[in-house]
Amino acid sequence: MNYETMSQAVNKFVETIGRPIIEKIENETGQPIAATVLVIEGGHVAFTAKIPEASLEGARASGEIRLVFKERTNSISFDGQAILQRLAEDTGYSGFLLHGKIKSADGSLRAELTGRTITYNVWDWQPAFRCTTDKSTKQ
């Protein structure tokens, strides 16, 4: 996937899926979250983007949402895994898995979330989302 296509896909993901999910979790926990989106290709980070943090008071959680893109005709499907540290620590909440697609229609992109699963006490990346520089994320 070329850089421009990846950039547009990530920006659409952040705008319509990533930021709304993070905002919902921030509102539920009352904690601000600093999250970075990384696109993984062949075990390496191909692209990164920040999700703007809410202006909430309290202990700040942080983490990553890692995506793997697959180009299709007129769309890009994606799988993702998020690991968030220091978020609602007494619950074991560790992040989520997600699936979806980004479609091109009439010259614009539309992102669609097709599935999301909450994870508890999952501190290591699934094989598709691992990078060559990874260590365990449990802190």
Question: What does the model show?
Answer:
There is one protein chain. The chain has one helix spanning 3-29, and strands at 33-41, 44-51, 61-72, 75-85, 93-105, 108-120. By secondary structure, the chain is of the alpha+beta class. Strands 2-1-3-4-5-6 form a six-stranded mixed beta sheet, with helices on one face. The longest helix has 27 residues, at 3-29.
Average per-residue pLDDT, rounded, comes to: 90
The main sheet comes to:
6 strands, mixed
Strand order, largest beta sheet: 2-1-3-4-5-6
By secondary-structure content and strand pairing, the structural class works out as: alpha+beta
Question: Mind sketching the topology for me?
Answer:
Elements: H1 3-29, E1 33-41, E2 44-51, E3 61-72, E4 75-85, E5 93-105, E6 108-120
Parallel strand pairs: 1-3
Antiparallel strand pairs: 1-2, 3-4, 4-5, 5-6
Keywords:
139 residues; alpha+beta; 1 helix; 6 strands; 47% strand; globular
Brief characterization of the structure:
The chain has one domain.
